[in-house]
Amino acid sequence: MKKIIITLISLLVGILCYAQSGYISTISIDYLQYFTPKTSYLCSDNSVVILGDASYIDDMDQFWSYGPLIIKLDPQGNLMWHTGQSLNHVKHIVGTGVDQCLSHSRFDDHFAIIGTGIDDADVVHFILGMPSGYNTGFIDTNGSITMNEEKSFVCWGCYFSKAIRLPNGEILACGRIGKQPTGAYHAAFFRLSAFGDSLAANYYPTDSGNYGNSTTGRNMVQKDDNSVYIACYLGSDDLSILHADLDGVIINRYDISGSSQGYGMSMLCDSDSLLVFTIEAIDQNHSTILSTIDAMGDLQSYNIGSDLYSICSVASTPDYFVLFGSHGFENARLAKYDYSLQNIWCVDYNQISLWSSDSFYEHNTDILKLDQQGCIYFVGITNYTHIAVVKLLPNGQVPNLDEVQTITSSPIIAYPNPAQNSVTIELGYGELHKAPGNRIEIYNIKGQKVRSIPMNNAASPIAQIVWDRRDNEGRRCPTGVYLIRETNNPQNTKKITLVK
């Protein structure tokens, strides 16, 4: 009996330790005008570190400037620290060279930070592109930053899109670089030491003679110990996948047509093949295209739907993958698939955008992560100047309002609670609520949507809906816990219990 009790206690402790709760955390930073999240990392305790490009306005002289921003949230989604407390703090982060950068007004010239990896001590490493070169550095768990010596190029406009830190500390990076005397952009690959010393570099010519912003290395994944896949746009809307060695020398090339950079892309590599996700846009219809390159180099493409307007990131486990992108022009959407390409669920977040208005080409950033329990973390923008960090349960839902930090809005009221028959749902008509297309959605505790009810704009300050306890098929819903959610403000969630 004693052994059984001990076993039960152990099981209970295990369940409590692995019990998960979601959150939506909104963060406001002083002086922040725009923010584009570029890279995020999960630490060993499920705290979150986010790196991105920010624009600030000094309250002293109203001077507009650009700089990096790094923030950290604890495992419950509470802000621990950030590096963008003021313009002077930004200058402190990047050193004396910031004044040269701030004298430029063009977006191409601002600092562009990219994470290169996180180590076993939860130290986050990064690379910082600058007008005349770059810095490498790292930030520890307490927010203390170490910067290595700035390195220079015979170029201008060095910009990194993706970087990888190898086990030996070396850094692989891709992006674009402006070269003199023509001032043309070239897609570029770099291999650097841990201190930023150049070990190898390669520049890829365009196919069409178009040397504009469309010529760039957009993404990169490591294939094996000796090679990488680099996703490039080489002067056209067609995406080129370059299989290259660690010096950037091309081994093979694969072209994926109809994959405009304006709709983003993402990719991941498993033991057998490379998976590339792009958007095919025909008229007003957008389809997600999965292109695979297997170990033999064979290229296949599949239309998997999802109705994403653009793609930002992808994360995976051995059993499924999650796509993160937008529906419409900006609003966030997540779609979960198994490897038979069946859509498991899809969730929209209409009040969360993926990027700032001044960073249209930043779709494919690395800001989607999965923890060991299958919870999903992503980063976006809300109310233009607020950063939104979201943790979802594996079913795509935040469990209840008590666990959510939200922007101010009129909360959902539902009564009686618990209820036997019908439920009256009330919602105040603020700006977030009265937009066209707003609906009330009801989910069971498994995260399955059982009912969707439209909300019509009303002259009354209060919208009132009566749910008759029936699902979309007219069947009476069984007893249990249900979540009521507003589509125009998905953070606005109410838990209700149905009884016999």
Describe the structure.
This protein has 500 residues and is mainly β. It has 2 domains: 20-403, Methylamine Dehydrogenase, Chain H, CATH 2.130.10; 413-498, Immunoglobulin-like. 6% of the residues lie in helices and 52% in strands. It contains 3 helices and 36 strands. The chain has helices spanning 2-18, 87-94, 98-102; strands spanning 23-28, 32-42, 48-57, 64-73, 79-82, 112-118, 124-129, 133-139, 145-147, 151-152, 155-165, 171-179, 184-192, 198-204, 216-224, 227-233, 239-245, 250-256, 265-269, 273-282, 285-294, 299-305, 310-316, 320-327, 331-338, 343-353, 368-370, 376-382, 386-392, 413-415, 423-428, 439-444, 449-454, 462-467, 480-486, 489-498. The strands form 9 sheets. Strands 6, 7, 8, 9 and 10 form a 5-stranded antiparallel β-sheet that branches. It is globular, with a radius of gyration of 24 Å. The relative contact order is 0.10.
Features:
500 residues; mainly beta; Methylamine Dehydrogenase, Chain H; Immunoglobulin-like; five-stranded antiparallel sheet; four-stranded antiparallel sheet; 3 helices
What amount of the residues lies in strands?
Answer: over 45%
* Coarse structural class: mainly beta
User: What is the number of strand segments?
Assistant: 36
Shape type: globular
**What are the low-pLDDT stretches, counting only 5+ consecutive residues below 50?**
1-18, 85-110, 357-361, 400-409
Overall mean pLDDT: 78
Percent range of helical residues:
under 10%
Number of helices: 3
Provide the CATH top-level class of the largest domain.
Mainly Beta
Let me know the CATH homologous superfamily of the largest domain. YVTN repeat-like/Quinoprotein amine dehydrogenase
The CATH architecture of the largest domain can be given as 7 Propeller
The CATH topology name of the largest domain reads Methylamine Dehydrogenase, Chain H
| Gyration radius, in Å | 24 Å
Major sheet details: 5 strands, antiparallel
Termini separation comes to 37 Å
Count of the domains = 2
